[in-house]
Amino acid sequence: MGEEQGAQAARERALAVLRVRGRALAGALLPAAVAVVLLAGGASGRLVGPGWDAARWAVSGVAAVVLLTGLLVAVVVARARPAMTPTVELTESSAPDLYRLVEDLAERLDVPAPSAIALTPDCDSWLEERTNATARPAGSGSAESIRTGPTAPVLVIGSPFLWWMRVAELRAVLAPVVAGTGPAAHPDIAAARRFVRGLDAAVALAAKPGQGPFGLLRRPALAPLGRISRLLLGACREHITQLERGVAAAASERAQAVDYGLRIVAQEQVGLAYAGWDRLLTRVALPAWRMGRWPSRLDAGVVSALTELSRRDRLADGFASRLGERPACDLLEEPGAVDEAASLLAARLFHGGPATPGPDWSPVDWQAYPEEVVDRKWRTEAARLHRVLDALAARSGDGTGGGTGRTAGTGPTLARVMDHLAAEPLVLDGAPGPDDGRGDEERTDALAAGITAEAAREEALAPRPEPVPLGDGHELWDGGSWDEGPLPVFPIQPPRTGRDLLADHVTAMVCCAAVDTAGAAPGLDWLDGPALLVDGKRRSDLTGPVLSLVEDGDAGPLRGWLAAVGVRPEKPVRLV
Predict the structure, then answer these.
(1) DSSP-assigned beta bridge partners for residue 127
(2) Based on CB atoms within 10 Å of each CB, which residue in 17, 129, 181, 307 is the most buried?
(3) β-strands 88-90, 537-538: how paired?
(4) CA angle 205, 115, 334 (to 5 degrees)
(5) What is the rounded CA–CA span in Å between residue 73 and residue 225?
(6) For the ranges 104-118, 124-138, 512-526, which has the lowest average pLDDT?
């Protein structure tokens, strides 16, 4: 589909949406028109008699109800705030070079420039209509600034792109996005989009649970509004889908005239940035978020993660040579402050943290991350492991937690954990061993079950995520799922089995023992998260020995690893 064909298809679909709106308006006015005819006939003496009088009263009553309902729907649709993505707003004074780049790009594409620029902590970019938002952030008064009026869309840019991409790559990637402002400026397309966004907001508003003394009456009172809005949305769904496809096709075709060859190369960096961002959030940021800390330089961290990936993967060697070029974050006046704001927003969106820092929600920089996050994580998990062992010991009455008894009364030592697991190897429920194809099932061992229950209890006691308002009736968090635990709408880590949790806790105990008795240190691996440093080098060979102990009850590989590193498992470790 070429540019003209795409634009024409989008306009035709926009007119189809507006026809749905027109038919709805006609349906709302039809009873009133019939009532007017009946009243006029009665006034002129043509439609008289008991039957006509009854008809006049009945039709007038229906017309009044329909008009009031239609008026309510129209007011809610017109005044409802559509869902808007939480973003970090960039004023022109904070990013003058970025604004000039976008304005120059719009001029080259011969389209209106976006009304403003905002950042999102995600690997994507788009145009967002913000009907009720101001056209320009306060404090921007340059005569050469982006100026297209309050109806122009806002350009939302993924913050990882600014730090990982070079300036030329960013311009090439943004070209198809900025080109979308051309079709968006067409009156019919803009009106169709506003109508559908209003309907969507009305549906969400009607479905939102009520609060306060009149909360129980709110949802039934708004039920007709929700049903009518859903009906209209259903009639518009196919048309608005094809409208957006036409707009995207027209924008893509227009953008081919600007940096097309470079865009093909830059798309590789989009996929790479997404992979690095995902690893950084799940492996590095998530452990900090869970203990009330939020890394304050996530975007700078994704550069380190991708640089490390380039070093490890020979297929990505060519990507590292790009780092000598000017990064797109140089287009910002204060990239550090913007990175901190985007990092806090990422914690709020993906974990449900508070919107502002506080005593229980404080930032952590990358230099302090190993000591304040990694070491604390290990010792917290080691303490949980020993609490479960203490509970098992109290239940069994032998003081060992079900072990052999050789380490009774020695306190929190690695030897105690190893003796317990070596004495009672994990087996599958009703199966001979871990090699029967059911390795992902929950183990029946009391230690694994106890750790799972303890972790679930602590998670249930953790503060619930705060809802992130997106518009009338829209929230980023599903408030109806709290009975199942505070899970985000966008879970960034798969659920852990009992075996996985036990292996994690044993690994944490080994790391604590290595730090306390062998001079090792906590570290940070940009791709894998917490790391153990021995003589300044990362040890990545601990997984196999731990799994042999956890799954097979074989402590031999782990004892060999401990001897090579110089760890003394009989020595007590410091716990949180």
Answers:
(1) 155
(2) 17
(3) unpaired
(4) 105
(5) 6
(6) 124-138
56: Cβ–Cβ under 8 A, 6 or more apart, which residues?
Answer: 35, 38, 39, 42, 47
Other CB atoms within 10 A of residue 26 CB:
10
Please give the angle made by the CA atoms of 22, 202 and 350, to the nearest 5 degrees. Answer: 135
Helix or strand or coil: residue 142? coil
Burial class (CB in 10 A: 0-12, 13-18, 19+), 274: middle
Look up residue 545 and give its amino acid: P
pTM (2 decimals)? 0.80
pLDDT at 491 over 50: no
Measure the CA–CA gap between 241 and 9, rounded to whole angstroms: 11
Mind listing the pLDDT tens digit for each residue in 50-86? 888 899 899 999 999 999 988 888 888 887 777 788 8
pLDDT at 440 over 50: no
Report which secondary-structure segment, H or E, holds 523: strand 521-525
- CA separation (Å) from 240 to 9, 82, 145, 225, 348? 11, 16, 32, 21, 31
Look at residues 341, 370, 368, 334 and name the one whose alpha carbon lies nearest to residue 356: 341
Other beta carbons less than 10 A from residue 355's beta carbon: 13
Kindly state the tokens that stand for 436.
Answer: 């029967």
What string of H, E and C letters represents the secondary structure of 343-390? Answer: HHHHHHHHHCCCCCCECCEEEECCCCHHHHHHHHHHHHHHHHHHHHHH
CB atoms within 10 A of CB 177: 22
CA distance 555 to 100: 63
